[in-house]
Amino acid sequence: MSNGLLNIGRTGLQVSQNQLNTTGNNITNANTPGYSRQRVDVATQDSFLTAAGYIGTGARAIDIERVVNQFVIEQVRVSGSAYSHLDEYSSKLSNLDNLLANKSSAMSDVLNTFTAAVATASDDPSSLPARESVLAQSRILAERFNTLDKTMSDIATGINDELASITQQINILSSAIGTLNKQIVESSGNASIQGPNSLFDQRDELLKELSTLVNVSVVNENDGSANVFFGNGQSLVVGATTYEVRTIQGKADPSRADLVIQDGATLKTITQDVTGGKMGGLLEYRKNFLDPAINELGRMAITISDTMNRIQSGGLDLEGHYGSDLFRDINDRESVLSRVAYHVENKAPNDRIISVDITDTSKLSADNYEMRLTGGAPSVFEIIDGNGSVVKTGGLDGVFPQTIEMDGFKITLESGNFSNGDKFIIKPTHNGAGNISLTGIQADGLAFAQPIVTGTSSGNTGNGSISKGNVVSAVDPKTGELLPSFQKAGALAPPLLIQFTSETSYDVLDNTDPSNPISLVPPLENLSFTPGISNEILPGNTGQTFMISDGFNAARTPMVNEVVSGPIGTEAPNAIVDEVITISRTLDNGHIDTQKLVIPQGQSAQAAAALMSEADGVSATASSYAEFNVLDNGVGTDFEFYLNGKQLTLSQPNLLGTLPSPMTNDYLADAINADGNLQAQGIRAVSDGKSVKVYSNQGVDLKFQVEGGTGDSVEFKGKAPASALGTVNVNNPVNFNAGGPNSFNLDLFDGPAGASNPRTVELEGSFSDTTLLLEHVQTQVDKAFGEAGKVTVAQNPDGTIRFDTVDNDMATRLRVTGPLGADPLGMAAAVAQGTQRPDDILQVSGIGAGNVQALSFAGQVSVTMEDGYSLGTDAASRGNFFSQSSTAQSAFMGYGLSISGNPDKGDQFTVDFNTDGTSDNRNAQALIQLMDKQTVGGQASFQQAYSQIVEKVATETFEAKSNRDAAKVVHEQAVSQRNSISAVNLDEEAANLIKFEQIYNASSQIINVSRQTFDTLLGIFR
Amino acid sequence: MRISSIQTFTTSVNRIVDLTGQVGKTQSQISAGTRILQPSDDPVNAAKILDLQRELDSRDQYIKDINLLENRAKLEEATLKTMNDTLIRVRELTTQAGNGALIQSDKEAIAAELKQRLDELKNLMNTKDTSGEYLFAGYKGNTEPFEDTGNRNFLFKGDEGQRYIQISNTVQIPASDSGKDIFVDIKSAQNTFTTLASESNTAVPPATVSVGVVVDQEAYDEFYPEDIIIEFQNPDERTLVGLPAQANFNIISKSDGRVLKENQPFISGRPIEINGVQVQIEGNPNTGDTFLIESSENQGLLTSVSRLIYGLETLGTTEEDKKAYNQLIEDSINNLKAAEDSILETRAEIGARLNTMDSTRKLHEDLKLVSTELLSDIRDLDFAQASSQLSFESFVLQAAQQSYVKIAGLSLFNSLR
After folding, report:
1. How far apart are CA A394 and CA A415, in angstroms?
2. Lowest mean pLDDT among A87-91, A250-254, A413-417, B261-265
3. Contacts of residue A119 in chain B, CB cutoff 8 Å?
4. Nearest-CA neighbor of A924 among B286, B166, B22?
């Protein structure tokens, strides 16, 4: 029995020793990371049966266990992962936030000082110091972009390094976890129970550390091991096996490292799948903020370069030259190639060349795009934008170069083997901020002036005033090429003369030779003007095209065989035949919409224009023209002349004085201008004495009738018939010496008032070579006229010889007389032909009183078509308004003008090249105004675009910081909860020490009692 | 709830760290004087600050531009005022010249002074500004705008360019006036003309054409508004009509090219009379050289004075000449008056511009004040509030520290002796 008591005391001692040891262990590990306090589980020993019942045999320690709550441990891991994600994310964002807002790195100040420099220079545009300051500010502007870009690229490189270092830490942690798993499984089979407690603690601590790097999920197995998964369920640790995580050069973008996990022989990319922890924070920052910010800045830089260069190119520098680029060309070869990244897994050979040109900065987004070849034959491509949606699809036609236009840029597949499955990243704006730089432009090369200057003729009698003019664009918005107006250095091509032909109509003429303004191509004539208000004089840039029916010497102009004869009143039909005009329009969906118009035979240009104007997208005007020279001999049958039924050869003493005889061009012109009916048809005439030019700005047919006797005629300018002068075959040897002297007379009728004025041409020598013969004749002709080139000598295709005059107006005549002496050239034959006129002159002669010869001229049609419309015609041998070779031309000149007030007939305004315009600041003003224009993406000014970037980053930083603070609280609470459960409370342990010490003492006392009991028992026997 | 010892420490330490951070931030705000240390402190207002600063910068620039512009306008005003004074003297002289009792030597004396005044006027019209640009040359700031092409026939070599300067987001005002508008395009009392030698003339030295004078207004009015070209012909052409070879010219109507008179003999300096106007051509023109007599409703100031001098010197005592002379004096007085009006009009315009500049500057200054206040409201720190916050935060920090020391000292082990 006392043995029992002794035993009970012994168990008490053992248990309390265990408890004291555990308490000691708890106290000493109070500050050990990850340590969970331990507790001794005590149970009573089995009782044994006596007669009195069951008697206890003491206590025993059955287990020493960690005080942990698995759920709370899990909480600590998850909240830790979330917190370190947000912490990393917000601290990186905060750096970017500081960078963008810092005075020494931000764009906003630089943009302000740039504007100020331009404004100062605009006050005094010829000042070189002011210009130098603009250049200096431009350089700072470009360098600021470069610095920001460099800093952000460095951050991107830094992220690559950080990712690499994190993967190393992950690998170290996961292999340590694997080792612990192994030890735990091994020691669980062992009797020792204390071992695994510290191993579990260690493993929990490692898992906690791991989860601050990346979000992991932990699955505890029955054998005590913990399997670790991350990302999209990828195994990191399974039992004792670990999988290595690494970074490699980015597949889509070599400058952005990718994460891979090694699984046997295969590498699996997991960049997109990883979340949480420091790693998740870095990846999110890179994807959502760093790259977009770089792109946004790049878009700004590209827009600034492009818009400013455009303004430069449309202006004049101090030397009067068109401005050269201020910033590096956004589409130079290096830049267009750098906008594409080729996926490393594309099929060999890697010989593909793709270039990306920026075509319209106002449509550019800051996205990166992915282009994929998705298969099929012919191969199909799809282009995916930053949001992951397919924005464009199409087929590869296999013919290079193939271009794909979208969102303000143009992808050109230049060459190489494109295979299904190929992927390309298109980054239109990514390098923009890094690539912007100042060109080698000098201060005097800044184009502050505009190339045009308008003028008002001092002789104007009306009070019309012309605006200063405004260059809208120096380049064709469709092709990007310089517009024709600005292609010539030092001159406008062409300078313009705006001439008012009445108070309500004007012509715009090519004023290259101010003494002889000519029609523009395409012509801008007979345009209407509304007096009193401001009128836009030139066509605007609305994509309109302009097309004019064939010119005067065309199919519709009468030929000599189309002159008809008959009694007075006989009218000749015009030469117009049935014509089918097709107006087509290509719709957005590729469908072509067509309208067919039928112009009936004999239609006037006026009616044809009215018909065409009814069609959609088309407006047409008509004008007509004829030129004649009257040759009245003043004798015999009276000469009479009619235009559109009006007899012009009537005496009008009040208006025009007495009727001249012979009839003159001047009188006929005055008679036309004096007639109200003809005026109502828009007809006016101009005579310079040699010929009369008749115009109608309404495009009515001009129908003439000529009545007169032999020797009375009117010459009309018409369509040239085939003709030849002389019949001599000059291939035979010619000897002028035989039977000489050999000479003939050439008469150009260039005496006073067109009088005969013959010159004698003397020929000599012997020729068997035609070239030498012609040279000789030419030399002798020049000698006779006393100047070279007045009459030229040439050979007709049929071998005959031909004389031509340089002047080719209506009054030009050439007559050969003589020949004197022998006639080896056969000049007698030429004499027989009489006076030679220019080829295109139709002579309409009188055929006696009471009868007329008639002919009529149809006008021409000018068509203006809206953007996207085109015009075609049917084939016809003769008599169409349009020929199939007619093409529409853009009438856009690149600048706009307005005239207001009330100009009078004859008033003139000029548009010239701004020669010596050193004090002009219009282009500098355009630069200043550019700063406020919605240029970036067509939606924001430069400053606004930058503010938006700053605001976006700031807002996100603010949000990330708040989220981090919240996550921090959650994490701290989780840790606190864990500490509350598992950490050591020293006061508690102190109390336990006292408690266990007391039990120990008491248990000792039990042994003491047992011993005393035993002694008492022994004393009985003493 | 059970509290572990480590919690006691970490909780207190975390709290102290947080509080130190707060104190640090408030201290940074006070030392920087601003509430927003980085944009994320207040994203919305940070963007607003950028906008406001840009606005202030641009207003400063506008004020600078206005000041520069003001100086230029004042220079122009002063020049025009001097011209006005000179013109008053010219008008006096013209009135004197109208005295019927004058003999030729008196007229020549008046002409002599008029030449002086003409020179003075021309020099004023060719005034340069402080940066060396001609004030009235339009865009051609480095080209002398009024050039004597010979015979006191002045040609305007500038252009009609007018420089505009932006003085606010919405207002652009002219920074210059073209001499053509002020001094050349002045409505004339009668139909008049200008003369011009073609730039493509080939004679060396070039033949000059005088300003000329209208000798028969009725005849000219009838012909008006046609322009006339005098084109020199080959001297030999006169032989064709049986006359000796001689320099000769055709008179051609410009609008339609009709030849009005053919092969007129030419003697340098002899007055040529066509349809009521008289001009002189001096020199030896080459064949093909042309001179233009351009009809106009306008007559330039220099032309008016020059024409008066021409009349004083050339119009004689015949009845026609006397009539033409009287007409010339009358027209001259009217034309000079019109020139004065034109100058006055420009001065009034400059005055109006100066007013606009003044009011715009005032506007900029007022709005700057508003923006500065707003900026200050958004960005600047309320120091009173901030320093009281700082002392409060320091106080709390101190309390936290003291309580930490107290709590850290509490342990049951201290009682175990």
Report:
1. 18
2. A250-254
3. 61, 64-65, 166
4. B166
Distance between CA atoms of A234 and B43, rounded to whole angstroms?
39
Give Cβ neighbours of residue B208 (< 8 Å, ≥ 6 apart). B149, B150, B151, B153, B197, B281, B282, B283
Question: Residue A818 belongs to what H/E stretch?
Answer: strand A815-820
Dist. CA A306–CA A436, nearest whole Å = 10
Q: Where are the alpha helices (DSSP H) in A664-748?
A: 665-674, 676-680
Q: Is the pLDDT of residue A132 over 90?
A: yes
Q: Looking at the partner chain, which of A116, A755, A985 has a beta carbon nearest the beta carbon of B3?
A: A985
Instruction: Report the distance separating Cα B279 and Cα B220, nearest Å.
Output: 13
DSSP A765-817: SEES-HHHHHHHHHHHHHHHHTSTTSEEEEE-TTS-EEEEES--STT--BEEE
Q: Where is average pLDDT lowest: A55-64, A546-555, A607-616?
A: A546-555
pLDDT at A146 over 50: yes
* Structure confidence by residue, pLDDT tens digits, A243-256: 999 998 888 778 88
Q: What phi-psi label fits residue B282: left (phi over 0), alpha (psi between -120 and 50 degrees) or beta?
A: beta
CB contact under 8 A, A986 and B185: no
Of A131, A235, A110, A96, nearest in space to A174 by CA: A235
- Other beta carbons within 10 Å of A108: 21
Contact A986 B5 (CB under 8 A): yes
CB pairs under 8 A between A and B: 238
| Number of CB atoms found within 10 A of residue B21's CB | 11
DSSP-derived secondary structure letter, A273: T
CA distance A537 to A539: 7
Which chain A residues have a beta carbon less than 8 Å from that of B296? 458-461
Q: SS3 of A288, please?
A: helix
- State the SS3 of chain B: CCCCHHHHHHHHHHHHHHHHHHHHHHHHHHHHCECCCCHHHCHHHHHHHHHHHHHHHHHHHHHHHHHHHHHHHHHHHHHHHHHHHHHHHHHHHHHHHCCCCCCHHHHHHHHHHHHHHHHHHHHHHCCECCCCCECCCCCCCCCCCEEECCCCCEEECCCCCCCEEECCCCCEEECCCCHHHHHHCCEEEEEEEEEEECCCCCCCCCCEECCCEECCHHHHHHHCCCCEEEEEECCCHHHHCCCCCCCEEEEEECCCCCEEEEEEECCCCCCEEECCEEECEECCCCCCCEEEEEEEEECCHHHHHHHHHHHHHHCCCCHHHHHHHHHHHHHHHHHHHHHHHHHHHHHHHHHHHHHHHHHHHHHHHHHHHHHHHHHHHHHECCHHHHHHHHHHHHHHHHHHHHHHHHHHHCCHHHHCC
Q: What is the mean pLDDT of chain A?
A: 83
ipTM above 0.85, yes or no: no
Closest CA to A860 of A628, A578, A606, A596: A606
Q: Which two tokens stand for residue A1014?
A: 């035993």
Tokens of B243: 């006359």
The burial class, CB within 10 Å (0-12 / 13-18 / 19+), for A703 is buried
Distance from CA of A285 to the nearest CA of B (A): 16
| Non-local CB neighbours of A279 within 8 Å, separated by 6+ positions | A163, A166, A170, A213, A214, A259
> Coil, helix or strand for A695?
strand
pLDDT over 60 at A472, yes or no: yes
Q: Is the pLDDT of residue A729 over 60?
A: no
* CA–CA distance, B299 with B332 (Å, rounded to integer): 10
Taking residues B350-361, what's their average pLDDT?
94
Closest chain B residue to A36 measured between Cα atoms? B4
Q: Is the pLDDT of residue A728 over 60?
A: no
